[in-house]
């Protein structure tokens, strides 16, 4: 049973929304400080953003006013997705029916609380699937570490590895795809 003072809620946000500042701070904390995936020096304001934010749908899980989880769904831009720029995998014939999920994260404050972590994961995954349905996406791409791929499989998300793993963002990661 999940006992929280406030119930988690899901919101889709825009980069122009005030909450996006908290998202950029969390992305910096997780990707630069905690995981070491990105170089801190590239983000002197301690805000992690990139060129894909403008062509993405941003999903936040909030508990009260706290940002508890976040993910983004990147829609194709200029006929490509970031995964095709970083891994040698064949591009999709119908790229417009594809997307890439990235920056999927749960705040450190909630990661240690198993029930809460699972609830945040579930809420993010459900909202991602709603976005995918709304945009008639056939292929969902993601770059994942092996432990995350196993975790996704346990949860019934049968992503398949579609290319060679490599050191990307400071860890061995694999390009994956989930066909719908």
Give the arrangement of secondary structure elements.
Layout: E1 8-13, H1 19-34, E2 56-63, E3 66-74, H2 82-86, E4 98-106, H3 108-111, H4 114-134, E5 139-145, H5 146-154, E6 160-161, E7 166-168, E8 171-179
Parallel strand pairs: 4-5
Antiparallel strand pairs: 1-2, 2-3, 3-4, 5-8, 6-8, 7-8
Helix and strand sequence: EHEEHEHHEHEEE
The separation of the N and C termini measures 31 Å
Under CATH, the topology can be stated as Aminopeptidase
What is the CATH C-level name? Alpha Beta
Task: Report the CATH superfamily.
Answer: Gcn5-related N-acetyltransferase (GNAT)
CATH-scheme architecture = 3-Layer(aba) Sandwich
Please indicate the count of domains.
1
Which word captures the global form?
Answer: globular
Beta-strand share of residues: 25-35%
Q: Overall mean pLDDT score?
A: 92
Write a structural description.
Strands 1, 2, 3, 4, 5, 6, 7 and 8 form an eight-stranded mixed sheet that branches. It contains five helices and eight strands; from the N terminus they run E-H-E-E-H-E-H-H-E-H-E-E-E. It has a single domain (8-140), classed as Aminopeptidase (3-Layer(aba) Sandwich). The chain has helices at residues 19-34, 82-86, 108-111, 114-134, 146-154; strands at 8-13, 56-63, 66-74, 98-106, 139-145, 160-161, 166-168, 171-179. Strand 2 (56-63) and strand 3 (66-74) form a beta hairpin. It is globular and about 45 Å long. By secondary structure, it is of the alpha+beta class. The longest helix has 21 residues, at 114-134.
